[in-house]
Design goal:
mainly alpha, single chain, 169 residues, 3 domains
């Protein structure tokens, strides 16, 4: 396996250098590996490993405590924000008045089952729309005596009049 690894190393070095430089670099690398094998690094004492292990445990406990405290604080802050938002908009008592924005809409309109009959403007526009629908249906089926050009012009004029009325009122 070592021979194959060294062959691969020489081949790799040849891609970046010429042949003599690649052989020299490979020889330097082998010499460095032999030198490292003759002088191995000393192993740490067991007391040092135990001390490092104890420090890691203490650090992990401190972080765990800080994270737990942060999560608790965030949960409390979220609860306060939720209560602050829900407080003003919570369940209404019967003595509270309706929203001031609804004051401009008549109560009869809110309580009505048929809004188009309760509001005169809506009733007017609904009847105009029904009349235009009837004229369009008559045009499609060919029941109208007038020419199609006159009828479509008349419908267009009515639509323009309704549009003007909508923007006035």
């Amino acid at each position: 396996m070592k021979d194959r690894a060294h062959e691969n190393l020489v081949e790799l070095l040849r891609r970046f250098m010429d042949e003599p430089a690649a052989r020299e670099a490979q020889a330097d690398i082998q010499a460095g590996e032999q030198w490292l094998a003759t002088y191995p690094a000393p192993a740490p004492r067991s007391q040092v490993i135990t001390a490092i292990h104890a420090q890691m445990i203490l650090s992990a406990r401190r972080r765990h405590r800080i994270v737990r405290l942060a999560h608790g604080s965030l949960a409390a802050a979220a609860a306060i924000v939720i209560l602050a938002l829900i407080g003003p908009f919570g369940p209404r008592s019967a003595s509270r008045s309706p929203s001031p924005y609804m004051a401009f809409i008549p109560t009869a309109l809110w309580e009505s089952d048929d809004i188009t009959t309760a509001d005169l403007d809506l009733a007017y526009f609904s009847s105009e729309i029904r009349q235009i629908e009837a004229q369009m249906l008559a045009l499609e089926t060919g029941e109208n005596e007038t020419s199609e050009g006159d009828a479509s012009d008349e419908i267009e004029l009515e639509l323009l009049a309704i549009q003007a009325e909508v923007w006035k009122g």
